[in-house]
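Lab manual, section 2.4: Encoding a predicted structure.

Procedure: take the sequence of the chain (258 residues), apply the prediction step described in section 2.3, and record the output as structure tokens. A sample record is shown.
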Amino acid sequence: MIYNFDLDGKIVLITGGYGYLGKAITESLIYHNAKVFVLARSKDKFESTFAQNPELNQRLKFQYCDISDSQSIRESFSSINEITPIDVLINNAFYLSGQSPEKMSDQDWSSGIDGSLSSVFYSIREIIPFFDKGGKIINVASMYGIVAPDFNVYEASPDFLNPPHYGAAKAGIVQLTKYYASYLGDRNINVNTITPGPFPSSSVQQDMKFVNALERKTCLGRIGKPEDLAGAFVFLASDASNYITGQNIIVDGGWSIK
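Recorded output:
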């Protein structure tokens, strides 16, 4: 049997599936015939995000989920499992507060670690009982989980400075992926990470000086577009990746090799 990238029949859950990058990931999964549940808190935002694509409706559903609350995560998985077995979980959502490397409060530090790392742990822990016949977990890290920021990039745009707890948490995700790939391998559960590089949001892209600084750090000489990232999720969700686990796929235009 030759495996391919067709996701027909697969049920994919994605947290934060209506954000800047999440929207492109969600739409690409559906384009490849998956049925996708977007796990998030705002149904209004979900509906407005995908309002321009009514043809997605049959394959796209909303499920309330608060990633800061492990009970909410558990209940969302259970609600979906009552309707259909789950094949893939994508841990894409995160939250944090605080930015200063020197003046960050204890509360902001804890919030960032909880919102970027602990929430992923909760989701992995809670999905395991629903993967009794195997499944796939795809975690989302960051280039700053594998390399330190070049602070020269932020010199002219301090508002966009990458905070210390973000990279620390994302590095933790890479290790958490390896841990659970090893732990869950004999249950036919694949666990992998995707590490995005410079994918600034539309609002951040208004600062062309900052965008140019990001572009100079890449090998390809440009920032990433959401569609540049989406294909990696299709690959890891598909049967084409059945023998891949514990890996970190870096999609950064070559940033981390320079």
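Check your result against the sample. Residues 11-145+164-199+228-250 form a domain with the Rossmann fold fold (CATH 3.40.50.720).
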